[in-house]
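Structural prep section.
Before we set up the soaks we want a predicted structure of the protein with NAP in place, mainly to decide which crystallisation condition to try first. Input record follows.
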Amino acid sequence: MPPWCNAVTVRVVQQVFPADDGVTTVDPIDLFHRDVRQTDGTRPWILMNMISSADGATAVDGVSNGLSGDADRSLLGTLRGLADVILVGASTVRAENYRAPRTPEDRVGVLRATSGRPPRPRLAVVSASLSLDPTAMIFSPVDPADPPPLIYTASGAPGKESQALARVAEVVEAGVGDRVNINLVMADLTNRGVGVVLVEGGPSLNHQVVAAGLVDEFNLTVSPLLAGGKSKRILAGPALEMPASLKLERVLSDDGFLFCRYLID
Ligand SMILES: NC(=O)c1ccc[n+]([C@@H]2O[C@H](COP(=O)([O-])OP(=O)(O)OC[C@H]3O[C@@H](n4cnc5c(N)ncnc54)[C@H](OP(=O)(O)O)[C@@H]3O)[C@@H](O)[C@H]2O)c1
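Run finished without errors. Recording the tokens verbatim:
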């Protein structure tokens, strides 16, 4: 997901489902902040958010921006406001030129402060190659007091890159060889007291998080677009041994976009 989400306009959107009392209009910021996100305490609540075209494309010309719009960016800002940590794969960081998470829109900021969260979520990147430019925008903090991004890597990571990145990030070994173990990542985040992790993709990382049985909530934005192309599906990887069954909790609609909130059943 693209990372520009500081100036979120407050939007009133249609609630399509549930619609027991007929279609209603809702304030998504209020709605998403009122949702209960509680685990048994052994790991954070893990919320995945993705956008796809109506025909299932996750990128246009290699990035998701072409699928997005003001309505989607606004919802993304709301979801980011809920997160303590945003977890993302290194290819997405490179493709989408990620920046350090911005300060959320005022109302989201107040809700964050009320819930005891720091002003902005912390970014966590998964990478084996550590092929990340230390001068890239993700390493430029909004405020110098912000904790630097976490980079989860594995034991085979190249030493030179690791040393260079250690100056601008906290590099954490969480796997053997060239494979970061997603369970170790979540264990580390749990030890840090993280309550809510927002997984923003890409599809390769998503597949691992779902395959490990770690997702609690899946937010899918359906963009009003047919895109074709060969971009990955939302989960890129082999068929899951056990498909994850979803329970549809809510569908909102704004400017032709559908926002589906599922919980893992
Ligand atoms: N539609 C949407 O909502 C959305 C959201 C996000 C991304 N996207 C799109 O998705 C594409 C990128 O997704 P992707 O699936 O190709 O890549 P990705 O999941 O973003 O990142 C894959 C990379 O992450 C690192 N990685 C992931 N799992 C790892 C593990 N277990 N151990 C070690 N390293 C691991 C590796 O980085 P290294 O190569 O550094 O080792 C790997 O190459 C882009 O086109 C982006 O625009 C779309």
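Observations: The pocket of NAP is lined by residues 1, 50-52, 58-59, 62-64, 67, 89-92, 95-96, 126-129, 131, 154, 175, 179-180, 200-205, 208, 232, 236 (CB under 6 Å).
Flagged for discussion at group meeting.
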